[in-house]
Amino acid sequence: MKMLVSVRSVEEALLAASGGADFIDLKEPSGGALGGLPTTTIRAIVEALRQQGCGLPVSATIGDVPMHEADRIAACVDAVGACGVDYVKVGIERAPQAVAVLDMLAGSGWPIVPVFIADHGLDAAHVAHACTLGFPGLMADTADKHAGSLFDAVSAADLQRFVVTVRAAGKMVGLAGALRLEHLQMLAALKPDFAGFRTAVCVGDRTSALDPQRLQALAALLHGRAVAEAG
Question: Which of 27, 145, 171, 191 is the catalytic position?
Fold first, then answer.
């Protein structure tokens, strides 16, 4: 299981890259679950990472855009995709417009990772539909980080079904949502390809600065577990 770390600046991105992250995820934690950064900041982070010779995959969110604003979603996707990131993350709410948005995203020409917002559970039909489209990966996450973790919002059985369904479609599968050290055992049982972290590697809450020691400790646990599983 690989570690995705969400960052908001060049300094945090470089810290995450040197601290053991496997994916660098660009977002503004104070702007919501998938708070978007200015495109100038996204470009600056991508450029800084590449100048440092960092070859880690980089994703960026488009911000929390409602499903009924499809035109705005498309415009944000184009703006973020043009910044040179490897993946563009788009939140998918449990809403009637979700299927139409997924279809639009699949035809956008950008490498999209739909992020299913799971505060009210996962819609199996929406997930199954996304699996028929050309996305490189799918994620499950939560919007309200103060209401508990992903494991409080979704049952272990439903999360297992999500992981199995996405992997059976030949796509990467990721889990996120206020994940902490105490969730590592449950994550290991589900075996997603990657898990996303912010709060667990910060000095305080998710809007505070990254903590190098927490970052390195989490990386050691995840990578050590991966080695043990592989052996």
Answer: 27
CA distances from 176 to 78, 83, 107, 153 (A): 24, 24, 26, 11
Looking at residue 117, its pLDDT comes to 97
Say what angle helices 70-81 and 98-106 make with each other, to 10 degrees: 30
Of the candidates 2, 89, 145, 171, the residue annotated as catalytic is 89
If one looks up domain 2-230 in CATH, what number appears? 3.20.20.380
27 in active site: yes
Q: Is 89 part of the annotated catalytic residue set? A: yes
Q: What are the boundaries of each domain within the chain?
A: 2-230
Q: How far apart are CA 162 and CA 140, in angstroms?
A: 8
pTM beyond 0.85: the answer is yes
Residue pLDDT, tens place only, 153-175? 999 999 999 999 999 999 999 99
Distances (CA, A) of 18 to 14, 56, 193: 6, 11, 21
